[in-house]
Amino acid sequence: MSSSDSEDQIPLSARLGYNQVATTRSVSSSDDDEDNVPLAMRTKISPAKRKNESDSESDTPLSSKVKPKANGNAAKKQKPQPKAKAANGKSKASAKPRVPKDSTVKVKKEPNTKKEPKVKKEPTPKSEPTVVKKIVDRKPLIKAESTASAGSQNGSEGSDDDYKWWLEQKDDDGPKWTTLEHNGVLFPPDYVPHGIPLVYKGAEITMPPPVEEVATFFAAVLGTDHAVNKVFQQNFFNDFVEIAEQHMDKHPFKEFKHCDFSRIRSHLDEQSAKRKAMTKEEKETQKKERQEIEEKYMYCTLDGRREKVGNFRIEPPSLFRGRGAHPKTGKLKRRVMPEQVTINIGPDAKIPDPPPGHRWGKVTHDNTVTWLATWKENINNSIKYVFLAAGSSLKGQSDLRKFEKARSLVTCIDGIRKQYTKDLKSKVMAERQRATALYLIDRFALRAGNEKGDDEADTVGCCSLRCEHIKLESPNIVHFDFLGKDSIRYQRTTEVDKQVWKNLRMFMRGLAKSDSDMLFDRLTTASLNKHLQTLMPGLTAKVFRTFNASFVFQQQLQNTPKGGTEAEKLLAYNRANRDVAVLCNHQRSVPKSFQNQMSRIEDKLFGVRYQRKLLKDYLLEVAPDLKKKHPEVLVKDIGIGAKEIKEYLLSVCELDREKVTKKFARDNEKLKEAKEPELPQSTLDEQLKAIDDREKSIKDGTYEPELPVAKNATTDKILEKIEKLTQRINSIEVDKIDKDENKATALSTSKVNYIDPRISIAWCKKYNVPLEKIFNKTLREKFTWAMGVDSEWTF
DNA sequence: ACCTTGACTTAGCATGGTGTCG
DNA sequence: CGACACCATGCTAAGTCAAGGT
């Protein structure tokens, strides 16, 4: 069978017009032959033999090189025993030793060779925090622009804010800074006890503050899904009891189900109500106070320039809200003490004072990293950092680097696709799996998919897909259904390249594989990325996401109407954005009020169309001769029949009744406060009566609508009004479409992380759309480096 | 050669301020 | 002018990936 290119296309790429599988033809040997190979493998090899050789045809020359380390079969029991991956036979199918390229690749490692191996502890004065130094000499910048008054103590030079780092060539992997000054981190306030008891089996238990604090954490979560999640409850309760044991001589807490947090909850509700009820001034002062405290942490001085710090606040204690089915969800995240915090700062800078009575855990001077402070969190033992803000030069530089890397894929993507398309038929199983995975990553923007542990939520990416996550349907349909990052469901049915389909079928059928087995049992993210490095320096799996997102976006923007209104252009922009979001599977929960909002828009729309219809009818009546001059007046509106109008008018009555009643209550409330006589009930009754009358007249068809123009309006005036209404209708319709298409899709993630901002900026210039319409202040700050591109810039 | 750790990007959700609309 | 939707922003969890450690 000759595979036709078009057949191999997946819908998206077809729609987008960049064509990958033109490359399919490069494999000219008949598909059938290739197709048979895997089958032959399956039928020819005895199970016993396959155990070790399952990854390749045993009698091909290539296969002799393939020496799986461990029993590949044993490695298969995937999820049940995550550690089993250790046994994954790594067939180092050395198809082609690619030595030369490697040297380029290595470049990245250079700085680290420079890094002296983590100096443990320098001899430091006993009572002082350990100070670790690791200063890497700054490589001379291309433009020795270090205007940075390297020693500036107060870093108050605001004028440096417009330092344009993107105009100079920065070294990718040199030191990250030369001088660094900052004021450390801000700790959350101490717990303030409220003394409200927890009710346990009906008994009020007043707890010592540390115990009360934990109980209060749970009270705060009441009303959310967490509160009814059994794992969350149990994890919380275990830690709660532990704390209780530490702080109470005896306590009655035996089972979660006997705990009643409602009293504490009411207290919390009261507090937040109080906060809400504060006057503007009070809020204002409070805000000012807060800012005063935060001010010193907000900025640091990096190479003499003032830069914004991101998350200078130490994370407060709380119950861990793991996403999805996280085994540790609900566990107590403990308060972080200064003694656990490491401060990273310039060697000559003043070390910030730790909170009174405390010391820093450690102070380092490591200029190979960008963080200002770090600590270890107790839930997953992971490391938390204080970094600079997104708009800082350090972040900007790496952002630019990221997009430039993705951009360099543009020129070599054809070759890479050709290569992996060819490898889809490789005789070496590991290569075939790698090529197949790469195809999925490239076409469907899947994540790499690292292995995960038992103590994490069961989510997967490409390399960690299990057989249960895909279903095949002849001739070349694949159904994906799995939980990805953040336990977001990835569900998609799509056509794939025929060879990919065959490969998937083969991988799934592999020796006695079951649903819970790894689909790509010969593949790891590490091996995949290592391979990618040989194709292009710096290439990793995630680059494909960036590349495809930006590329698709640029393609789709070509649908912008040249002569359209701004709203139409923005719609085109948002649609392109949405295509990317869909590609990357960026979801959000449908807003609770969505249905409401939608029907309100529909009502609004109908109202305006109805008004227009009234005017049209009126015109036709008073000036029938206009028919000829203005045929548009004749155009009948669809969906505005007598029945619909009646429904609409009646619903308006309903709404009006509500409105009037509410307003009445509100007015009286005010009068009451002002100690003035309240309005009599009759006022409301009169209004309601008017509405009742209207309703009746609508029902019996005697209702006479008011025209939305003055009685004596000229025809021209009326035509003008009609035109205005038409515009309004169009704009509402545009809004409506946009809204509906957006309800479950998060556009921001791709905008912030995946789409090269230069595409958007060039688009704004080309179509004369103000940048504020698409980038909010945060985004504009984050992407200052991209502002200079002209309207013709392309990704 | 593996596993772990460290550093950094990517992710959705909660929330609180703000703009808009009647 | 208040209610309400909306949006920006903060927050921190959850990924990626390569160096380091064993």
Automatic annotation (TrEMBL):
Q: Which residues form the DNA topoisomerase I eukaryotic-type domain?
A: 319-768
Q: Family, per the entry?
A: Belongs to the type IB topoisomerase family.
Top-level taxon in the UniProt lineage:
Eukaryota
Which Gene3D superfamilies does this one have?
A: 1.10.132.10, DNA Topoisomerase I, domain 2 (2.170.11.10), Topoisomerase I, Chain A, domain 3 (3.90.15.10), Yeast DNA topoisomerase - domain 1 (1.10.10.41)
An example GO BP is: DNA replication
Q: What does this protein do?
A: Releases the supercoiling and torsional tension of DNA introduced during the DNA replication and transcription by transiently cleaving and rejoining one strand of the DNA duplex. Introduces a single-strand break via transesterification at the specific target site 5'-[CT]CCTTp site in duplex DNA. The scissile phosphodiester is attacked by the catalytic tyrosine of the enzyme, resulting in the formation of a DNA-(3'-phosphotyrosyl)-enzyme intermediate and the expulsion of a 5'-OH DNA strand. The free DNA strand then undergoes passage around the unbroken strand thus removing DNA supercoils.
Gene Ontology cellular-component terms listed: chromosome; nucleolus
- Compositionally skewed regions (Low complexity) per UniProt: 83-96
Active site feature? Y754
Q: Which reaction does it catalyse?
A: ATP-independent breakage of single-stranded DNA, followed by passage and rejoining
E.C. designation(s): 5.6.2.1
Keywords in alphabetical order, please: DNA-binding, Isomerase, Topoisomerase
SMART domains linked to this entry = TOPEUc
Q: What is the lineage of its organism?
A: Eukaryota, Fungi, Fungi incertae sedis, Zoopagomycota, Kickxellomycotina
Name of this protein = DNA topoisomerase I
- List the CDD domains hit by this protein, alphabetically: Topo_IB_C (cd00659), Topoisomer_IB_N (cd00660)
Q: Which Pfam families match?
A: Topo_C_assoc (PF14370), Topoisom_I (PF01028), Topoisom_I_N (PF02919)
Composition-biased stretches (Basic and acidic residues): 99-125
Span list, region Disordered: 1-139, 270-290
Q: Which GO terms describe its molecular function?
A: DNA binding; DNA topoisomerase type I (single strand cut, ATP-independent) activity
